[in-house]
Design goal:
551 residues, alpha+beta, 5-stranded antiparallel β-sheet, 21 strands, 41% helix, binds adenosine-5'-diphosphate
Length: 551
């Protein structure tokens, strides 16, 4: 009865290898009847190798695993189409004198076990390949995956090579979070641990990148992890570095703001320009018409004077605008050359003196040097000095205007000081802005000082001023340049303080009549103007530059 109750297939062969008995498990395993199986020969079974048969003949036990083939036709079976895995053990039976008495074969069907095993291997391989794909996807997306284990207070960073992930303590992660973002992070952990819910599953934190020594903006998408009973056991985070996106976004915003600002500036500039141009133009057009209709000589002269003044304003405005836009577009021409500053200042002083019509104002030149030669752009020097002095003349109703310069090795500072109306403190920061005229009644474009500032900025030089209301102002400009200078002795100084004799210009003016003059001018009106001014001379007109050179 024992073999009948065993869960294994059991077969008994006699000493010649004839099958004499098989239990009911074996009958089922091989799909045979007792009649068909009876007397089957062990040594003719094709499922046993010749080597094993040899061992059996020699009285040795054998065991083997077979991918059992029912189709070989060794016996009649109903399982012809089946495929099974058997583990077989054949033991040799001997008597006390060691004589071979028969063979006992036991056989276990491991087909199902085998299938499960291969299923596990398949699943394992699948997990490994999914892990590989995940790792590729994470790398491609610049992503990092984290698992936070609440109980262990540990972060596991997904790492293909390390089973379970790279371990990081809570502290090591927490201390890398930007101080301003730490509370956000704690709030997220608390709400998911205590309330077991996550309100939003997206969060941006700044995390310190130890290699780059900078905070990176990281976007975290997260979800809670639960055990079978629904308890929160952890949080899964997917981290994405979005620093470049944030920078790109910030650049876009600042570019947009700049464009809007530039657009606004352009509109303001155009509006102011139109106004500034229309005002003198109106006067010119209006008085030109009036002058034609007027017979009274006194009125005519008055109108003529007004047209001249407004034309001057218009010309200066256009000149200033062109100059400013040229400087700002980077087309500033700086032609440094050896400049006799002492001589030039003397000349400028003479010419500025002529301009002061107000007898209550005196102009003084302070030039404590017998020689001063610096490497400077002559035109820009004259332009800045002229601007300072013109302003001083405009805004000084009485008192004194002092123009002068001071030299130090490698540097020259020239300045214009006045005892004029001065500038109120609250207006000081607008002085160098375009079209900024603090006094709307005084003639001017409000561009002069902006041009001086633009020149200073473009050449890395310095411009500035000090001023007090009702006391006066001092505007100065510092140029860094090669300079040679000799200071005056005390006696020379005294001599200088006495009024400088005015240069006699009469010999120059005497001979400008009856000259042969070549006028290169393509505009007819301008040529007409020139012909009227130079009517006492012989004029030849050239239309183009080449024409002018030939003539
Ligand atoms: P503008 O051509 O109108 O003089 P600027 O740019 O040269 O333009 O000067 C801007 C403003 O600065 C002037 O309108 C004036 O209000 C003020 N300013 C310049 N120089 C002086 C000065 N020496 N004293 C008082 N105010 C001055």
């Amino acid at each position: 009865l024992i073999p009948e109750y065993l869960p294994l297939g059991l077969i008994y062969y006699d000493k010649d290898g004839y099958l004499k008995y098989l239990n009911h498990v074996a009958l089922k395993m091989f799909g045979v009847t007792v009649e068909d199986a009876y007397n089957l020969k062990l040594f003719e079974d094709p499922n046993i190798t010749a080597e094993d048969k040899e061992k059996l003949r020699n009285g040795q036990n054998v065991s083997f695993e077979t991918d059992y083939d029912f189709g070989v036709g060794f016996y009649n079976t109903i399982l012809k189409e089946e495929r099974k895995y058997f583990v077989t053990k054949i033991a040799v039976i001997k008597d006390t004198d060691d004589n071979l008495q028969g063979y006992i074969l036991n056989c276990e069907d491991i087909t199902e076990k085998k299938a499960q095993e291969s299923e596990i291997i398949k699943s394992y391989k699948k997990i490994k390949s999914t892990q590989k794909e995940l790792s590729l996807a994470l790398n491609a997306g610049n992503l990092t995956a984290w698992n936070y284990n609440i109980k262990e207070e540990t972060f596991y960073k997904f790492c293909e090579q390390i089973e379970g992930g790279e371990k990081h303590s809570f502290e090591s992660i927490y201390k890398r979070i930007h101080p301003d973002d730490k509370n956000l992070f704690l709030a997220l952990l608390n709400s998911s641990i205590q309330e077991r819910k996550i309100s939003d599953n997206n969060l941006v934190l700044r995390i310190l990148d130890i290699n780059r020594k900078e905070y990176r903006h990281c976007n975290f998408i997260y979800n809670i992890k639960e055990d079978e009973e629904g308890n929160t056991i952890g949080i899964t985070f997917i981290q994405q570095d979005i620093t470049e996106d944030v920078k790109y976004q910030q650049n876009l915003i600042s570019a947009k703001n700049k464009a809007e600002e530039a657009d606004k500036l352009k509109s303001t500039f155009l509006a102011t320009m139109s106004h500034e141009i229309r005002t003198p133009l109106n006067a010119i057009v209006g008085f030109s018409q009036l002058i034609a209709d007027t017979v009274n000589t006194e009125e005519k002269n008055e109108y003529k004077q007004l047209i001249e003044t407004n034309s001057e304003i218009l010309l200066k405005l256009i000149g200033d605008i062109l100059d400013l836009s040229k400087i700002e577009a980077g087309f500033i021409e700086i032609n440094r050359q050896e400049l006799d500053v002492a001589l030039l200042c003397q000349e400028l002083y003479q010419s500025f003196k002529q301009r002061i019509k107000n007898t209550n104002v005196a102009l003084r030149l302070v030039a404590p040097y017998t020689k001063c030669v610096a490497n400077l752009d002559r035109n820009r020097f004259i332009q800045i000095f002229t601007n300072f002095v013109t302003n001083a003349i405009k805004y000084t109703p009485q008192g004194e205007i002092v123009m002068g310069y001071e030299c130090k090795p490698g540097q020259i500072k020239f300045y214009v000081k006045d005892t004029g109306i001065g500038i109120a403190d609250e207006k000081k920061d607008r002085i160098f802005s375009r079209f900024e005229k603090l006094d709307n009644f005084a003639q001017g474009t409000g561009l002069g000082l902006s041009i001086c500032k633009a020149i200073a900025d473009a050449t890395n030089e310095e411009i500035g001023f000090e001023s007090k209301v009702d006391e006066g102002s001092k505007f100065w400009y510092i140029a860094h340049t090669d300079i040679e200078f000799t200071e005056k002795s005390q006696s020379q100084e005294d001599e200088n303080s006495t009024e400088t004799t005015e240069q006699d210009l009469s010999p120059l003016l005497a001979n400008i009549k009856e000259l042969n003059i070549l006028v290169a001018e393509d505009n007819d009106s301008n040529f007409l103007l020139m012909r009227n001014i130079l009517k006492e001379n012989y004029l030849t007109r050239a239309i183009t530059g080449i024409d002018a050179v030939q003539k």
